[in-house]
Amino acid sequence: FPKKGVGGSEFPYVLAGMVESWGGEVVDYPERRHCCGFGFRNYLVQANRGYSIANSQKKLESMAPYRPDLVVIYLCTNDFSTARQPHETIFAGRYIELLKKVKANYGEDTPILCLASNVTPFSFDYIRNACMMSGLSNLTYVALTSGIHNYEGDLGASWHPNYKGHIKVASSVIPYISTITGWEMEEKPYR
Fold this sequence. Notes:
The chain is mainly α. It contains 6 helices and 3 strands; from the N terminus they run αααβαβαβα. The chain has a 3-stranded parallel β-sheet with strand order 1-2-3, with helices on both faces.
């Protein structure tokens, strides 16, 4: 799977390609290629929490000087394992904390698009409820339903989308990004 991704696993290019396709500028902030470290296992296991929180904080701080037109948060691709899931109140508390940190870094007016994966049937409910409870403005939440991926060919390690899976995700969220940002969608087919 890493070899099939555009740019490989260290230099993924799907989101950067979307930005460039719309004439935007990709900001190469210092921690851009680092994982947020917020995987469910990293947060649930007490010994790993320090890593998860510190890594997420470092990533947010490294992005702070930049003012994006939109922030996309796509958690839950592997945060809900088949064995254990966080209770909704725990998830909501941490998700709201993340949303508030993003707003603190970029300003209250910065729109956030919150994507919920299709790994579990309740991840969208968790994200939607957390957004509604947050009291924050300019939040849009979208469910990537189970029909978006073919589990045999669109997902790689730990349910993360591979190249084909990323294309499907990008194709499904482009209309939301266009609506939220006011960026015009080109009227041309894609493959």
